[in-house]
Every structure is written in C-alpha cells, then in structure tokens.
Amino acid sequence: MNAPAHLQYDVSLRPFNTFGIDARARAFLPVETADELRAVRDSDELAALPRLVLGGGSNILLTGDAVDALVLQMRGRGIAIVGETADATLVRAAAGENWHGFVLHTLAHGLPGLENLSLIPGSVGAAPIQNIGAYGSEIGDVFHSLTAFDFDSGELLSLDRAACRFGYRDSVFKHALKDRAVILDVTFALPKRWQPNLAYAELAREIQARGIAAPDAQAVSDAVIAIRQRKLPDPAQIGNAGSFFKNPVVSKEQRDALLAAHPQLVSHLQADGSYKLAAGWLIDQCGWKGRSLGAAGVYEKQALVLVNRGGARGGEIAALARAIQDDVARAYGVMLEPEPVFI
C-alpha cells in the first residue's frame, strides 16, 4: 500500500512540544482519521518503524537531537453531545481538540464538570493517558468512554472507565496498551446535578477572596485559571511541560517520620491511609527554585516546573531533573517520579 499523502520526513518537532526542544523526527504524519492509522499499519515501510503519538506535546521530553520514529500527530477535531443518562450529559470530543478549549466549550454550553481542569495544556486525546488532574479533580471522575485504534488488530477499541484502569497520573495506556492503542475520541459524562468541588484549599481561598458565596462552574474555572496563571509559565512564552514531577505517595509511617524531622512538611491524607507529599515543597526546600543548569532551569514561582530558558536541549533538562531527584532523595529519602515521558 502507498504511504499516506501527508507523510513527511526529517521534520523538526520544536513546534510540537511545549518544552520547545528542537529534535528532528525521522518521519512525521498528521492524523485525523482511523483510516490514516490503518494505512500506516498496512504499509511495510511505516509499520516497521517505532511510533510516537503526539497530541499537544505537553507531557513529553525529547532527550536527544533526533527521534528515530514515525511521529503521529493527532489533529482530529469535533465536539458533540452524543447522549445522556439519568445523571449526566454525554459529550464527545475528538483527540486533536485542545483540552482547555474543550473545557471552555463545555462551560459556554452550560455543561459543568471540567472546570477544575481549566488551563491544563495539551489535547483531549492525551488526557486519559495521564488521567490528568488538578485542584481536587481528575478526568476519571467524569470519564465515560473512548475510542482507540488498535495497531495489533487493526480494529477500533471502545473502552469504558473500568477498562482504562485509571490511577494517579496513570492508565492502561501506560501499561497493557502502551505503543499499541491510539486514542481517537473521548466521551465525558458531565453531571446534571452539579456541585462545586472546592476541596482543594488554594481554590477555596481564591473563591473566598473573590467574594463569591455560591460559585457556578464558570466562577470556579475563572479562579483556577487565575491561580495557574500566577504560578505557572505560559508554554508559548517559556518552554515547559507544567508540573514536572508527580507528588510522591508514602506510607503513614514514613510520613510521620518525615514530619518529626521536618515539622513544616506539606502532606495530604489519601483515602487508603497513605499520604501524598508536595513535590514542589520538597524541591524548594532543597534550594532548587529559580536555579539553572545551563539553559535548563526551575521556575522562579513554582519549584515543580522545569523550564527551557532558551535553546536548552532535552538532555540538559533531563540532567537537571536527575540532579533534583538526587537531592530530594538524599534529604528526604523520597524518589521523585517525572510526569513527562522521556523520549
């Protein structure tokens, strides 16, 4: 079978990753439909290449100067109400839709449920892979189902919430379906009987500071956007991938020992009795906030964010991440795990 018409070779990926790393892809294909993925699978040349699926490029770190793979950049568009249940309205979005744009679309159409996840960079199709979350919410809370193309069988998969096996920044797409399934669209069950989720203390304080006694979903979204804009750099201005490290989860015994040695330790009790530590606090306490190694740095306003100060190579950012991990491990006995995927 002939190669897809839009296939390109030796393409810079700088415009397609929010760190702004100038690595070059061996082959590059914009994808809108499942038929284009079938053409890749049926091509002897392309099927033999490793694959890298890109959405908004906001959760990857390109560590080398070249990506010896076929890069599939998902560009499908479309948002529609596709049904309802007694409790929810079902809204489907194509994988290539911008995540924040999709959130704003749902709010503009009177469909709350995603407001706490406002201004997260990336695409709709990438959101389930990471089970993105912020300010007390995760997409797993309002997820209904998704459609994915299975490179093993050449067929479409339909996965419900249970099949996606959501965990903290985790899903089946990082395990059994890794390098196999490509998400085409995602359907969300947005609640008809909505209540604001203000469990996250910083968000509750922001709403209170705005003098809003009974916030609607738009007010919650506005507050989340304001908080994020104060703390996090715009990838269009400073290359970054948002929060670079996961908040580590430790046992009660380990947390109690750490708290005894470090009374200011920031931790949050989880439903299973474990504790989630604030990775940004740990990094800040190790003196990394605002520091740089070459052109790679730690953002001055939020120690959890690593940035490209201009012309950084992926290897420099990876080296900075390792240095931070080593310092936190020495000081607290905790190993931080990166959120972005290293390529």
Describe this structure in words.
This protein is an alpha+beta fold and 343 residues long. It folds into three domains: 8-74, 2-Layer Sandwich (Uridine Diphospho-n-acetylenolpyruvylglucosamine Reductase, domain 2); 79-191, 2-Layer Sandwich (Uridine Diphospho-n-acetylenolpyruvylglucosamine Reductase, domain 3), CATH 3.30.465.10; 239-342, UDP-N-acetylenolpyruvoylglucosamine reductase, C-terminal domain (Uridine Diphospho-n-acetylenolpyruvylglucosamine Reductase, domain 1, Alpha-Beta Complex). The chain contains ten helices and 20 strands. The protein has helices at 34-42, 44-47, 99-108, 127-130, 161-164, 201-209, 217-231, 252-261, 279-285, 314-332; strands at residues 8-12, 24-31, 51-54, 60-61, 66-74, 79-84, 88-94, 133-134, 137-138, 143-150, 156-160, 181-191, 239-243, 249-250, 267-269, 275-277, 292-293, 296-298, 305-308, 341-342. The chain has a five-stranded antiparallel beta sheet. It has a four-stranded mixed beta sheet with strand order 1-2-5-3, with helices on one face. The protein has a four-stranded antiparallel beta sheet with strand order 13-19-18-17, covered by helices on one side.
List the helices and strands and how they pair.
Elements: E1 8-12, E2 24-31, H1 34-42, H2 44-47, E3 51-54, E4 60-61, E5 66-74, E6 79-84, E7 88-94, H3 99-108, H4 127-130, E8 133-134, E9 137-138, E10 143-150, E11 156-160, H5 161-164, E12 181-191, H6 201-209, H7 217-231, E13 239-243, E14 249-250, H8 252-261, E15 267-269, E16 275-277, H9 279-285, E17 292-293, E18 296-298, E19 305-308, H10 314-332, E20 341-342
Parallel strand pairs: 2-5, 3-5, 4-20
Antiparallel strand pairs: 1-2, 6-7, 7-12, 8-9, 10-11, 10-12, 13-19, 14-16, 15-16, 17-18, 18-19
Helix pairs in contact: 6-7
Cofactor: FAD
EC number: 1.3.1.98
Domain FAD-binding PCMH-type: 21-193
